[in-house]
Write a structure and sequence with these properties.
The protein is α/β, with parallel strands linked by helices. Helix content is about 40%, strand content about 15%. Strands 3-4-2-5-1-6-7-8 form an eight-stranded mixed β-sheet, with helices on both faces. It is globular and about 60 Å long. The N and C termini lie far apart (about 55 Å).
């Protein structure tokens, strides 16, 4: 049975689109047929993060208007042919789509794909209602900041009110040193407030900016960064694997740290 997962948060700028792009790619790398649906009509960005912006001809709006077939609007990723993007229209606002239309669109997508990942826009108005329509699961993305967590808490309530019960939490842009200095909320703090099962912790990573600018998700790298590994692990947990959470308080396991371990062991 196909799974329809909305990636949401309430607050803008917490990493929903980065999460959608990386999870979509990670699941496709595992051999799953995946479509990522950009539900941010008027402000699409998912195409940029995947590096597919120059290949868009039609969008979800044209599909719903009957101006093209679904297959014509889907943009297949040449690096990973199991992944497809259904882009949002950049020149149409959120209110051009209704929740009923979104349900109809998703009903067609689930006949072709094993996973439908819906990238929700910021806010809790029409765009949010469209994004959650047809979803069966939700990933709440938040950064460890009180304003982001408060918005996420509001979204959790709205999801439950809309009968969407399978909700899991991703804490993004964690900085362990700031947590240790009591300058940032811990993962435990966030969990306590939201009372949602944790599925992923993603550390703050400058590589995300490079990845975004290049249109190459972190999970495509030959040697995964810490954030890339975190996204890959989330995909594995979505698939049902039991994967331990990475201890981000430990120094990165790069060549220099491995060399120090070897030298220390020899000295001892």
């Amino acid at each position: 049975m196909s799974r329809v997962i909305v990636v949401t948060s309430g607050k803008g700028g917490v990493g929903k689109t980065t999460t959608t792009a990386n999870l979509g790619m990670a699941l496709a790398k595992r051999g799953r047929r995946v479509v990522v649906l950009d539900a941010d009509f008027g402000l699409r960005n998912l195409d940029l993060l995947l590096g597919l912006e120059n290949r868009i001809v039609y969008t979800a709006v044209e599909v719903l208007a009957g101006e093209c077939r679904l297959e014509q609007a889907l943009v297949r990723d040449k690096r990973q042919n199991k992944l497809a993007l259904l882009p949002a229209a950049q020149n149409r606002m959120k209110d051009v789509i209704t929740p009923e239309q979104m349900k109809k669109l998703i009903a067609e997508l689930v006949t072709k794909f094993q996973y439908v990942l819906v990238d929700s826009p910021a806010g809790i108005e029409q765009g949010f209602q469209n994004a959650i329509a047809g979803a069966r699961e939700a990933l709440i993305v938040t950064t460890p900041e009180i304003s982001a967590v408060r918005d996420a808490d509001r979204v959790v309530g709205l999801l439950e009110a809309n009968d969407l019960k399978k909700i899991r939490l991703i804490v993004n842009r964690l900085r362990p040193k700031m947590v240790d200095a009591n300058d940032m909320m811990s993962v435990e703090d966030v969990q306590e407030i939201l009372a949602v099962p944790l599925i992923g912790i993603v550390p703050d990573d400058e590589g995300v900016i490079v990845s975004t600018n290049r249109g190459e998700p972190l999970v495509l790298a030959e040697e995964l960064s810490r954030a890339g590994r975190a996204f890959d692990n989330i995909a594995r947990r979505i698939e049902g694997e039991k994967v331990e959470f990475i201890d981000f308080s430990a120094p990165p396991d790069n060549f220099l740290t491995r060399l120090r371990k070897i030298l220390t062991t020899k000295i001892l």
